Amino acid sequence: MTSTEARAPFVARAVPYLPLGLIAALGATLAYVVRLPCRTGGWNDQVTTYTNFCYSDIYPLYFDRALATQNPYFADVPFDKQVEYPVVLGEVMQLFSWIARALEPDHVAQAVRFYDLTVILLGACLVAGVLLMAAVAGPTRRWDALWYAISPAVVLAAYINWDLVAGALSMGMLLAWKRQRQVAAGVLLGLAIATKFYPLMFVGALFLLTWRTGRWRPFLVTMGSALGAWLVVNVPFMVLAWEGWRRFYVFSQDRGVDWGSPWLFFQNKGWPVLGEADVSTLGMVSLAVMCVGIAVLTLAAPRRPRLAQICFLALAAFMMTNKVWSPQFVLWLVPFAVLARPNWKPLVLWQLAEVWYFVAIWLYLVAQSPLNRDDLGIGDDTYFTAVWGRIITIAIMMAFVVRDVLRPDKDVVRQADIDDQAGGVFDDAPDRFTLQSAFR
């Protein structure tokens, strides 16, 4: 067999993904263009940053977290100026700050170069995430990945923060699980949790479906690998830079209610209980209630739910009950929402709500102290229409997913005798435990 013949099968498999990769690269490029007004100097004027809708954490944190002079977690700065991200993101920031310092002597030029280098990585993560999502979806639903590649909300939010790194790792985890490579799935899950905390919600989804199917060995191997990977990247910082390492966890615990959260609405309007009680407790209790509901649904449904459906419901519950709901959190949910229910009507409705929120948050901030530019911004009531727009449209999608779980014949992914293309060991697995069997 010639080398050309040997490569042909791989080329044949790769060709269908090429258009998706190119469209994802277009989405990454458009996301860069959206922020050009700031990239060319607008970051130095907060009003201009907000009115041009081009804010990004990447540029200001280069200065505010001492990246221009010191290393994350080891920096000799006040505790509240330590990097407030898990260690994988902290080390990504460290790497690009080193390169920026080597390339540019001037601090301002370094920050711009730091932004450009970070955006290259994030763009690559978007492309990788789209291709991985397409592989997870399988040949019958491959083009659903276009929602992740170039949807308006993704383009607008792509470079606000480093979330796309965790997105690529999460999609890689899902593909490894689909292909029954549990060690790789665990390692990628552990790294994803060490990048952004939200992939921890997928542990619950895997646990519930494992409980229903009795496939404990793959689950335990995956969890062991995830814990091992998390420890490998975290323990050195826990030992050598404890104060810097724990900043993320202290910040997450102590952080008050913030932009985008429904709790902010309740506090702003002075609602009894919901607007007065401790937000951390309210959030944890409400998340626990929703997770119990997801568990009951998973174990009581007439047919085992798909993995993507439970991941979506768990992640949506986490976002809806959180103390903060930043614009870039849409990047967490898009691939799982599409994998759970690739129906364009509710997805379009949700995307419109996300775009409106993206516009509303910056117009709201420009009218807040210390800028107080009421002539350029919007007030509380208008802003909260955007907050509730996201909540309501995601709740609608959750309701449709619940319906699909309870009535599998309505699930468009399960047509043509397909069970769970992303399910790995769960695909076509018989039930070992359900609530019905437990109470017989």
TrEMBL record:
Localization: Cell membrane
Membrane topology: Multi-pass membrane protein
Membrane spanning residue stretches: 14-34, 117-139, 183-207, 219-242, 279-301, 307-326, 347-367, 387-406
Keywords noted in UniProt: Cell membrane, Membrane, Transferase, Transmembrane, Transmembrane helix
Pfam family, one: GT87
Domain of life: Bacteria
Similarity section: Belongs to the glycosyltransferase 87 family.
The protein, known as: Glycosyltransferase 87 family protein
Taxonomic placement: Bacteria, Bacillati, Actinomycetota, Actinomycetes, Streptosporangiales
